[in-house]
Write a structure and sequence with these properties.
Structural class of chain A: mainly alpha
CATH superfamily of chain A: Winged helix-like DNA-binding domain superfamily/Winged helix DNA-binding domain
Low-confidence stretches of chain A: none
Order of helices and strands of chain A: HHEHHEEHHH
Oligomer: homodimer
Number of domains of chain A: 1
CATH architecture of chain A: Orthogonal Bundle
Radius of gyration of chain A: 19 Å
DNA sequence: CTATAATTGATTGAGTTCAATTAAATTGAT
DNA sequence: ATCAATTTAATTGAACTCAATCAATTATAG
């Protein structure tokens, strides 16, 4: 057996590395489908929230997506340019900005509805593996929100 | 029950989204430890390969990390500036560039050896969850290399 | 009321990521 | 041997990510 204290630094012994690599690979799977509706992956998950919420503050949006305003602001500006959302500063608390889904944004949902099934086919996990993965990932995400 | 064909577009029904978010959150856990040795996460996993290989082509390095030359080149230039690697174009095949670990790069391993244990503690999965996650992620990664 | 603290979004800068392109070198088929 | 196809890195451009900082606003303490 060849064991050294440096084995912990081998790529094959990492858990973070395959997590990081798999995330990029799966996002890459979305690209052809998202290209067809002119969205990036970040814009797509932002629209997912908008389709559910219709109206939400930038702050709340960022919390749902685990992204900060430095990332959200340009994404929202781009979606506003495409006509899918509008932004308006709150009158009651001028520090906050609300984002609103437009009719055009609502209509886009129809074009996006087939995408999840198409990508799921490519990833090719069993239902059980999918569930296991889901649970573990949300365990990680719940831990991170703590400190 | 409230079911619609649009449920597949809800954030909570996605598998890719928590994968994408968890990957970023875990990478973020590394930051304080990596800041201490002046490496980014991408530079860190690149050094992991170098600690194992001592010498490797840019092509092979990119394949191991699932990154292309557009990402690797600036990372390697930065590591070269820090003195941890050198780069030299192959004499036998001048298309390829080999990367070499320097003594300084080798010495950095000693400073990095405690990092994996520190981060593992933060993520807080059980051994079984870790193994399940590992297997599923590599299943995803093996699928992606195919097409 | 006033000063301090906290919240919120925007901005900035460095680094990452990847598709597309370019340039050089090698390989393979004829 | 020659020319087309392939391989390899580098470059470019657009977008994402995040820490740090800033400015404006609101909340709280005294």
């Amino acid at each position: 057996m060849s064991n050294s204290k440096y084995d912990v630094l081998k790529l094959e012994n990492q858990l973070c590395f395959p997590l990081y690599a798999a995330a990029r690979e799966v996002v890459k799977q979305y690209r052809p489908y998202l290209d067809a509706i002119d969205l990036t992956y970040t814009q797509y998950i932002t629209m997912m929230v908008m389709w559910e919420e219709k109206e939400i503050t930038v702050k709340a949006l960022g919390e749902k997506l685990f992204l900060d305003s430095g990332t959200m602001t340009p994404v929202l500006k781009s979606l506003e340019t495409k006509g899918y959302v509008t932004r308006k500063r709150s009158t009651t608390d001028e520090r906050s900005v609300s984002v609103f889904l437009t009719d055009s944004g609502e209509a886009l949902k129809e074009k996006a509805v087939d995408i999840p099934a198409k990508v799921a086919g490519c990833v090719g996990l069993t239902a059980e593996e999918g569930l296991q993965l889901y649970k573990i990932l949300y365990k990680i995400l719940s831990k991170e929100g703590e400190e």
